[in-house]
Amino acid sequence: MPSLAAPESSNIAGGRELKDRIVVISKIPGEVRSPIDGDCTPHKRRLRSDTARKDATISAFSPSKTKSPRRCINGSPKSSKRDVGKDSGENPLVSQKLLANRISDVMTTTSNWNPRDSEQIRAVKDALHVSKAPPVVVCREEEQRMVLQFVKECVGRVKAGSLYICGCPGTGKSLLMEKVKKDIVQCAIETGFQPPDVLAINCTSLAKSSEIFTKILETLQPKKKLNGSTTPLQQLQNCFSQKQQHGTKMLLIIADELDYLINRDCAVLHDLFMLTLLPFSRCILIGVANAIDLADRFLPRLQSLNCKPMVVTFRSYSKDQIFRILNQRMTALPYTVFQPQALELCARKVAAASGDMRKALCICRCAIEILEADLRESACDMSFSSAEDCSFEQQATQDPVFLTKNELDVVRVDHMAIALSKTYRSPTVDIIQSLPQHQQIILCAAVKHFDGGKKDTTLGELNKSYIDICKSALIPPINIMEVSSMCRVLSDQGLLKLGQSRDDKLRRISLKVDEGDISFALQGVRFFRSCLQ
After folding, report:
1. Which of 5, 125, 164, 220 has the fewest CB within 10 Å, making it most exposed?
2. Which of 337, 362, 332 is nearest to 349 (CA)?
3. Which residues touch 403 (CB under 8 Å, ≥6 apart)?
4. Residue 475, Cβ neighbours under 10 Å: how many?
C-alpha cells in the first residue's frame, strides 16, 4: 500500500500546493514516484502488470466515465480495508492527486477571485465607481460621432457654432464630453489644423451665473487684466465684433449642467449662445443639460433668428446596453466577480426604472458589500460551532473542492436582489416583505395563477394553488377559512381585491398591485424565487 510522505506544514492552499506536496513512495525499494508527474527516478524494469494497473487507474478517473468512490475503492460495502484497490488496481492517493490537479487547473483557467482579499475588493469597487472613466465609451458611438463631426467642421472652417446635448441623468453625457476633449485635440493635430483651446465649466461651481463670462475672458486673454469699467460680457462682445489676428486659436467651451444658468429672464443663457453669432467669434459652445426642451422654452429669440443650436439627444440606456457596460468594466479585472444572471437582473431593473447607468454602478457596489457581509456572517457562524463540527470543517478545509468553492464565491442573484430592494424600495415592496409567511405564499400563488393572462379567479381556485405550493415545500397548509381571513387582511392592505359572495369559495379575487412588485419583493428568498421562476 503506498504511503504519504508528510510535509512540514499541514496548510494546503489549493490544488497546486497539494500537487507539490504529495509524494507517493512505491513498494519497490529505492524508487520514489509522483502520481501525476511520472517517475522521479527511472524504472530499471517495467512489468506488464504495472502498466495495466496504471492504465486502469487513469481510465477510472477519466471525465467520460465516473464511478462512486465506494465502487472505485472498495468494490462493495462488505469489502475490507485490505481489499482496497485490489479488484480494480486503483490507488486512492493517485485519485486524490488527480482530483487536486484537475481542480488546480480549473482555478487557474477561470479565476482567482477571493472576496476575502481586501485588495481585490478595493479593485472591484474602484472599477465600479462612477468617477472611473473606461478607456472606451461604449453604447454611445453614434452620439460621439455626431459631436466630433460638429467640432471638426467648426475647427476646419474656423467658424463659431453651438451645440446642445440633452438627456436624462446617467446617460453618459459628461463622460462623453471628457472623451471628446481628448479626441478633438488629437484629431486636429492629425489633420493639420490648429487644435483649439478647451474650457470645461461645471455651472454648479459658479457663485453667480454671470461668472461664466469671466471664465471665458480669462481663457481668451490670460495675461490681460480685467477692465473694471466694462463687464466681462461687454469685453467679449467687443472682442468678437472685431477682426481677430491671424493664427488666433478657436475656443471650445463645454458648459456642463447648463440649466443652472437659467434665471428669471434667462439673460445669461441667451447672451452665452449669442456669443457664437457675433461676426468674428471663434467660440464653439457645447451646452450639456438634462432638459430636452431647454432651447425651445428658454431661447425663443434664437429660434426666431433661425440660430437655434444643433441638438443631440442621449436616450436612456436599454437593458442590453447596461449589461454590456457592466461587462466592459468587469472584463478589465482578471477574475470573475458577478454571476451573469446577477448582472442581467441589475440591467433589467435599472433599464425599467430609469436607465441611469450611475444607479446601476452603485447597485453593483452595494451587492459587493452584501457579499462581504454574507461572508462575515458565515465566518461568525463557523466560529460558534461545536467542537465536533469544528473538527469536521477542519477536515473539509483540507479538501481541494472546499477551497475551490470558497475561492470562487461570486455575487449571486440573491445578493443583487437585496441590493436592488435597498435602492428601489417602495411602500408596496416593504409591505409584502413584512407579511407573515402564509400571506406571502398566498400572494405567490396568486402570481402563479395569473401568469397565464387571467385577471381574476375564485377563492377556491386560489386555495388550490396555495395548497400545491405548501405541499411542494413540505409546509402544513391552513384551512380555507383561514385563507379567506388572510385574503381579507391582504385586501385591507391594498394588495388584493376581494369580491362579495355568499360562499367564500366563489368570491372573486384579483391583484391590486403589479405582479413584478410581488416577484421583486419575494425573490430574495430561495423558496419563493424557485416558485416564481
Report:
1. 5
2. 362
3. 12, 13, 14, 15, 397
4. 14
